[in-house]
């Protein structure tokens, strides 16, 4: 096992691989926004959790992940370039987007929910609750796959992106590369927030989706820059997060009044004497 090895396979043109990676992310996120628009237009009434068209999108996501495997090492080498790693602006930006992925997304979801309950604004609490549910679903799915896939992180085996071993990721962070958890959280938040915003205020679609999905994409790029994930890990994480966001929001609004909504959207959060907050739920 060769740890810490750093050499360039970019043959003097790492910018070319950087452009390829950035273009790949952009192309990948474009259909996400289109599908979210379709999810927003879900007809009223009850629908099954999964519909036949989901298989088509799942296939597209799978192909996108597989398409990244041949260039995983080249992308990693391009981003490990010493001049880029020494760039303080890039380092600071990557750290900021890493924090946005986690814990930032969880703070956003729970903050919107708590703020909506405190201010007695049901729509805001609804957005916060469904965003948080999307994050929990994405986190659970990602955690299971990380443990089962057992893929070594690029800072563990810099020259071999194909090291998988069944269940090796159980309790071993260095073998939890696939898929990217930060990216799945970022895309779950982007998908759920954009779907909720498109439903409550269609006028926001023109700017909200590019902003949310763009930020989520930069979270993914930051994880490759930090040498914690291969490019295909990020694409897989984006797929999981996006599906989590779509499904939670679509299910919630085609099954109004389901158990979780009844429990949490009827909750009260209020200040208590001496400081602090109290919450009350009805079951």
Protein architecture, described:
The protein has one domain: Vanadium-containing Chloroperoxidase, domain 1. It has 283 residues and is mainly alpha-helical. Helix 2 (53-68) packs antiparallel against helix 9 and helix 6 (122-149) crosses helix 9. The longest helix has 31 residues, at 88-118. It has helices at 14-40, 53-68, 72-79, 82-85, 88-118, 122-149, 181-200, 205-225, 231-254, 259-265, and strands at residues 268-271, 277-280. The protein is globular. The chain contains ten helices and two strands.
Q: Summarize this, please?
A:
It is built from ten helices and two strands. It has helices spanning 14-40, 53-68, 72-79, 82-85, 88-118, 122-149, 181-200, 205-225, 231-254, 259-265; strands at residues 268-271, 277-280. β1 (268-271) and β2 (277-280) form a beta hairpin.
Q: Secondary structure elements and their pairing?
A:
Blueprint: H1 14-40, H2 53-68, H3 72-79, H4 82-85, H5 88-118, H6 122-149, H7 181-200, H8 205-225, H9 231-254, H10 259-265, E1 268-271, E2 277-280
Antiparallel strand pairs: 1-2
Sketch the major β-sheet. Answer: 2 strands, antiparallel
Number of helices: 10
Class by alpha and beta content: mainly alpha
Mean pLDDT: 82
Uncertain regions: pLDDT < 50 for 5+ in a row?
Answer: 1-12, 33-37, 39-44
| Percentage of residues in DSSP E strands | under 5%
Biggest sheet strand line-up: 1-2
Structural domain tally: 1
Question: Judging by the overall fold, what is the CATH architecture?
Answer: Up-down Bundle
Tertiary shape: globular
Helix content: 55-70%
Compute the CA-based radius of gyration: 20 Å
